[in-house]
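Protocol step 4 of 6: structure prediction from sequence.
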Amino acid sequence: MSIMISFFQQFTGINVIMFYAPVLFKTLGFDDDASLMSAVITGIVNVFATFVSIGTVDRGGRRMLFLEGGIQMLICQILVGVILGMKFGVEGVGSMSKSSSYLVLVLICAYVAAFAWSWGPLGWLVPSEIFPLEIRSAGQAINVSVNMFFTFIIAQAFLTMLCHMKFGLFFFFTGFVLIKTLFIFFFLPETKNVPIEEMNNIWKKHWFWGKYIPDDAIIGIHHTSSKVSSN
């Protein structure tokens, strides 16, 4: 879970937007000043949308935010890819009207907002709370290492991918968004309001992970066994 959540967090494509926003928006037809301003706008959206996660993560739960954010990002990336494909085609040559450019900006802002209240903060929160105390430091070390490694990979590969894949780059990341959303749906149990000491109980009840959690790791098993033995 620590490896996959960190991997999928980077392959949402968010760093493409945040690292290279001025380059990306200039490619979409914005002039230099407008592309820089668009980058500022997406950064502001990212900050304020994070507060949505802070206010709802312990009410609606982790799974709800993960799934909603994934679906919203999926829709936004598909629409951006379709618009760019219609305007620039496979040759990457064309132009965008002002209305189309603003629509793309709105869609990217919606995408950034979805990431900022789901995969952004939860990519760090969930791995930090699902491990038993005995292996928490090792789990977090894996989480950070995987995150930084794929941040580096995406940053190095983006410009080459943009030149070769053009609008298809958005569909590339859309595929990963779909896979990661299904991954969360099937493999992540809800962990909101679960004490650290009882976290194993949640995983033991899961249809897949329960096979790998030994009975003696579950709180309550020891007490029940002791009472049966003494009786």
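Step 5 (inspection) to follow. The CA atoms of residues 96 and 219 lie 60 Å apart.
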